[in-house]
Amino acid sequence: MALLQMDLAWQDAAANRAAIxxxxxxxxxxxxxxxxxxxxxxxxxxxxxxxxxRIDGPAFASQTARQHRCWYLHGATEVADDALGRxxxxxxxxxxxxxxxxxxxxxxxxxxxxxxxxxxxxxxVIGTDHGIISPFICYDLRFPEVWRLSALAGxxxxxxxxxxxxxxxxxxxxxxxxxxxxxxAFVVACNRVGRDPVAEYRGxxxxxxxxxxxxxxxxxxxxxxxxxxxxxxxxEWRARFPALRDLRRRFLGRVxxxxxxxxxxxxxxx
Length: 270
What we know:
Strand content: 25-35%
CATH topology: Nitrilase/N-carbamoyl-D-aminoacid amidohydrolase
């Protein structure tokens, strides 16, 4: 597992992609490693996507994953048919096949993201040889219900890419730990560093175990944070302390679940 905690160049996809390539390449990663970039890794946190409508995030994700023989999760944007943007996390496997594209369910109204972006309408759960994963983006961290629905669909490892401001850094850490504990899942959380025209970012990317232990944590500078996840221990903990079985599902809503693996339960609350 590798998290690319990086300073994003404002609206400069070429510079950001070159930095991503350098961070992945040196030192070389083991084949099959999962690599997570920050939210909107091409541009930094923008409120509209008209300027970068031609940037192809999925193509870059596929190329990067294939070149480095890794699973790569790339923070990107697109312009949809309604002319509004979608904030995405694109997941490619080491063969370069796009295994899923998650569109941020909750655009950040306080930060004016809602002016240029519309929220997605489904959670994404992907079966891999290294566990069942589910991606989320930044502000989604404040909405535990969608994480719960994803866990009920089988998710064991949550990835979250962010541009989370330094002003609320304590919330970032606390909420990542809470999401891990309540869903008995790993949370792999990558935040950017540096500054854009609106905010300052402290990074503090982290990996949290299903019992809430912070197993790896970055500081406030650019850094490639690495960690190993023990999925056997995760499954043993869920079996020994089966809190998810005690959920009263009728109190949960329903949401569409995009699954790329027939082994995953299509179970999002009743």
